[in-house]
């Protein structure tokens, strides 16, 4: 089932990375995002490889694995691949589907084009990543 433009925009709006992005800018992202269906046990992102895509989980779930150890499970609304798309460096973890999974995918060149064409998207993403890093840093300090 293909998602409507409005549903894509809603899904992206629920993604924490795009928390500060305006409705108009979310619609621009939704226009460029592709729907991709993956089967169970499919490697979407491979640790050590240069990433060419950013993904938001729509349905299903994925496991995030680094050096053979599971770090997290992600489900609808969660995202992955942002670091490699932003910095162009190899992926720090592998992402594998746990069952049939649908994602919205944004190629790295589309991601860059959106930020160039809509600087407010870049600013919102920076703020979202900063909040995520701050949260993780505070969690580590508490342990």
3D architecture notes:
By secondary structure, the chain is α+β, with helices and mostly antiparallel strands. Helices cover 41% and strands 27% of the residues. The chain has five helices and eight strands; from the N terminus they run ααββββββαββαα. It has helices at residues 5-13, 23-32, 82-87, 108-117, 119-142, and strands at residues 34-38, 43-45, 53-59, 62-66, 69-74, 79-80, 94-97, 101-107. The strands form two sheets. It has a four-stranded antiparallel beta sheet. A hairpin with a 2-residue loop joins strand 4 and strand 5. Helix 1 (5-13) packs across helix 2 (23-32). The longest helix is centred in the C-terminal third of the chain and has 24 residues, at 119-142. The mean pLDDT is 91.
Core attributes:
143 residues, alpha+beta, four-stranded antiparallel β-sheet, 5 helices, 27% strand, globular
Oligomer: single chain
Helix percent reads 40-55%
Count up the helices: 5
- Overall mean confidence score, pLDDT: 91
Q: What gap, in angstroms, lies between the N and C termini?
A: 44 Å
Shape: globular
Order of helices and strands: HHEEEEEEHEEHH
List the helices and strands and how they pair.
Blueprint: H1 5-13, H2 23-32, E1 34-38, E2 43-45, E3 53-59, E4 62-66, E5 69-74, E6 79-80, H3 82-87, E7 94-97, E8 101-107, H4 108-117, H5 119-142
Antiparallel strand pairs: 1-8, 2-7, 3-6, 3-8, 4-5, 4-7
Helix pairs in contact: 1-2, 4-5
Summarize the structure.
Helix content is 41%, strand content 27%. The chain is of the alpha+beta class.
